[in-house]
Model the fold of this input.
Amino acid sequence: MTTPLQQLIGGAWLPGSGDLIESRSPSRPGDVVASGLGAASVDVDKAVSAARDARTSWASTTAHDRGAVLARAAEIVAASALEWGAELAWEEGKTRAEGIGEVRRAGQILSFFAHDADRESGELYNSPRNGERIMVLRRPVGTVAIITPFNFPIAIPAWKIAPALAYGNTIVWKPAGPVPLLALRLASALVDAGLPAGVLNLLIGDAALGAEIAEHSGIEAISFTGSTVVGRQLASRAALRGIPVQAEMGGKNAAIVLEDADVERAVNQIMAGAFNSAGQKCTATSRLVVAEPIADELIARLIEAADQLVIGDPLGDGVQLGPVISAAAESTILEGIAEAIDEGAVSLGVSAFTLNVDLREGHFVAPAILDCTGTQATLWNRELFGPVLAVKRVHSAGEAFAAANEGDLGLSAAVFTGSLSHAMEAMDQLDVGMLHLNSETAGADPHVPFGGSKGSSLGPKEQGRAAREFFSNTTTVYLRAGA
Ligand code: UN1
Done:
């Protein structure tokens, strides 16, 4: 059943003034999941004004009362996990289990930030002058643009929107064009939880609409997740206007398996990291760096496991690998694989798979493992955002860390080793924002910072206390009694 799409502007659900938007299931592109009129420039103006008008009253609502709205929304989201998780799988293409897991995670994120009012909210310093104390207070930034990607249609929005609201900001949110349904669900949960009109505005449309919102003169900060190219474009234009940007962008994350690793564990974690969500995570494992003495065994076991992956309808029982998001994504991934082979990479058994007739139009891509050792294959440094693992064999831990540090991205890495010395060398040598020792490269907890180094991130990190850095400004108060 197709869900009607609407915009949320100033507390009212309205049809957009733009063109018809349809979200289609990537497993059965004939299925229209949601449809309605998208937003146009006039809607952007209205949404930004509504958000600006709501600033003062939301900022002066107590942190406790703002948190209470988030707590109620968290309950609604958690209670809807089975239903919305299935919708997510239908619209985005990750498996039902992953969809349900993601909706639950969104609930946990809302809940974490709901309780931030109960944590410390600033700093207190001694003064070098008698009778004085120095405080650092936090105030909201104002009206923020939030632009989110297709691959986590509810968790990433939750981890931007929840702290933005908790710290007293108002929002204009543009979710990725292909996944408006889950955006509708999250926005409705917040409205049903009692969020006042205008505090959150939802506009549905394409990337051009996102740029228009971000560049609107009424926007005071931008939080973006998406590609490095788009993130840097937004950031460069924001710099000209002098507004802050938080951008989470690409990843080309290595799993490094050293000679002393538990191979069984490494295989399981690499399979999850590389092929869950069809590899469409900025934190996905897209590189494997393996010590030569165990390389043959590890690769053979990975190929065997990849061959056994159950590919099909993400809503089907036992399915492990669904489609990628679109026909364009499918072509980009297949072209990236072909290019790597042209450049000398060796394909290590791309599994053949058969699909039910009703899925033949779906955007399915077989898992691919390519040995890039000794080549200059572009694949080693280029994010393909699909179920593709590029491999390099190395002869020492030092060589492994150097291989993992190649390229412009530095989001996450995983090191599989039983040696504390190697683990500690990895902490010093890997230029990444998140390092997993003996676990997969993906995953993020709401109470700790999320983000990368090099080209993977710009501006303050997300989640945990880091979120407060971006979504609030400090005022340093020199406090003395007046008399
Ligand atoms: C995760 O690893 O579970 O866009 C989250 C992305 C990341 C989120 C990854 N910002 O894939």
